[in-house]
Amino acid sequence: MRNTILILLVSFISLTSCNKKNDETNNDLIRVVFDPGHLQFISTSLNPKNKTMSALYGNEKALESLSKESNTPDAGSLMKLVTWRYHDNPQYIGGTITGELVSIETVQTATTGNISYGIQNTSAKSIPFNKEERIHYFMSYRPVSRP
Q1: Nearest 5°: phi and psi at 109?
Q2: What is the pTM of this model?
Q3: What would the pLDDT profile of 35-90 be if each residue is shown by its tens digit?
Q4: How open is the CA angle 42-104-67, to the nearest 5 degrees?
Q5: Cα separation of 29 and 97, whole Å?
Q6: Cα–Cα distances in Å, from 17 out to 5, 13, 23, 92, 121?
Q7: What are phi and psi of 84, to 5 degrees?
Q8: What secondary structure letter does DSSP report for 143?
Q9: Please, which residues have CB within 8 angstroms of residue 42's CB and are 6 or more apart in sequence?
């Protein structure tokens, strides 16, 4: 009789403990997955002060420009710097994941050598729009080394 009561008690506790509802909300965070299309991943950066992370994508010409550490992108270069706000990963303690898309900045060099800069900003806090400074920032990235 004791064993039966003990088994029923353990079964009851295990069934009720599995019935807990998750009251945590995602604080209206919207995760956006960026599709780079034909562009390839070049490098990444993290800004803990602003809680943002960025990924730089580009074509072959952009990769060559950044590999030789030049100050201006080669003709035909196309680079996109995608910036997300990050937040704690609810599934892993101590991990972070991308969340709200902050901006997509584009630097493109025409075959004539003219450099154009554009920004699609989806965040209320805007990035300072200084074309030369932002192009210099793009060119400061170094491609990650791949085995």
Answers
A1: -115, 125
A2: 0.71
A3: 888 999 999 998 889 888 899 999 999 888 888 877 888 888 999 999 988 888 88
A4: 20
A5: 11
A6: 18, 6, 15, 21, 45
A7: -120, 150
A8: P
A9: 56, 57, 58, 62, 63, 66, 79, 141, 143, 144
